[in-house]
Amino acid sequence: METFDVVIAGCGPTGAMLAAELRLHDVRVLVLDKETEPASIVRIVGLHIRSLEVLAMRGLLDRMLERGRKRPAGGFFAAINKPAPADLDSAHAYLLGIPQPVVVQLLEEHAIHRGAQVRRGCAVVGFEQDDKGVTAELDNGEQLRSRYLVGCDGSRSTVRKLLGVGFPGEPSRNETLMGELELDVPQDELAAKVTEVRETYKTFSITPFADGIYRVVIPVAGVSERAEPTLDDFRQHLRTIAGTDFGAHSPHWLSRFGDATRLAERYRIRRVLLAGDAAHIHPPTGGQGLNLGIQDAFNLGWKLAAEIRGWAPETLLDTYEAERHPVAEDVLDNTRAQMELLSTDPGPQAVRRLLTELMDFVEVNRHLIEKITAIDIRYDFGEGPDLQGRRLRDLKTKHGNLYDLLHHGRGLLLDRTEHLTTDGWSDRVDHLTDPTVAVDAPALLLRPDGHIAWLGTNQQDLTTQLTRWFGAGVTG
């Protein structure tokens, strides 16, 4: 029986990101995916500010930028078209539009380059866990042994169901059709009709994708029982909403998704964990889903690696659920609110008009944009300054950009005092002394995910926090 430190079910963005994070710490990782080939549907997704920062911290952002297109960071909350404030606290204050298959490809290639194994065409169908590990059964009858199993296997997660974790929430009430088709209609006529329809249906869109090919997004009342839509479905709903089907023909791909909103009751039971869509689903309004999963993996990776490498403090792995579950709760709530604001009913439309006025106040607009882009997150590390628990933006240091110094997934003491020490933790935490760096604190201790674990000047307090997040120091 083959053995690994971690088996990951699902090689989407979350699973691939988690595998790469674990490999930074020499964890033996196997990623399984039931599909024989990566998804070929070229759905454009938006990488928000925090995800761009995460990728920069691991040296992946430039590769993404080569394959994507920068767009303004504003206008995403309920499709209310308000520009982002010019002074958002990030060196990456934009949205990157990029095909989802490209994101998966680049993350998977990165994980494999780091040493992860990826096997396609096989899936976990059963498992048993004990005090030392997990025995997983695959659909081909093979068994694998690992110390931990992580379900990154999507909204219909087999791992979550086998684990018996509840997935409460609301089922789909409405759905959206999305696809790429060819249309036979003059461009000016098409643009005028789309503008007219969007006065009522804010999520309706038809955008050119390639020569003669358009990406079509149609909101639909109710939920179809059919798994996949047909060209006739698209034509029918276009006529219902726009009064014309625009001569739609020759579909390249067609899909539908609902607005179900659900959150797993737990993210971990002993040695089995959940991340990404296996732990939470919600409507795509605001474009937060893929980002939420990548950030789950970024939070979990170094903690699970620490557990496997043997230096994790006793409760470190528990902080994954404690930190990420409330974040998902907030995302589900803001998508619920956005869906209400997209309703065509008079009441929600009145609230939408009022909120549109309120967003002219800079701080209201800032609050909603920071929420969507996940740069407002403050993990609860207990009492302390407001910066504690927040992520730190990229900064210039005498050794280069701060995020470039985090490529290896280690902690970092950013020390302007020049008298602090990380002796005993140098195998886990780097120490950068730089009195010139522009940060509003004498010294900061960063976790591998870039969140501020401590700030101050007292060595004893620093030692306490080093032990809290990075385990016991090594003497000698």
TrEMBL record:
Keyword Flavoprotein belongs to the record: yes
Keywords, alphabetical: FAD, Flavoprotein
Required co-factors: FAD
GO MF annotations, alphabetized: FAD binding; oxidoreductase activity, acting on paired donors, with incorporation or reduction of molecular oxygen, NAD(P)H as one donor, and incorporation of one atom of oxygen
Domain FAD-binding: 4-335
InterPro entries: FAD-bd (IPR002938), FAD/NAD-bd_sf (IPR036188), RIFMO-like (IPR050641)
Protein name: 2-polyprenyl-6-methoxyphenol hydroxylase-like FAD-dependent oxidoreductase
Protein's organism: Kribbella rubisoli
UniProt lineage: Bacteria, Bacillati, Actinomycetota, Actinomycetes, Propionibacteriales
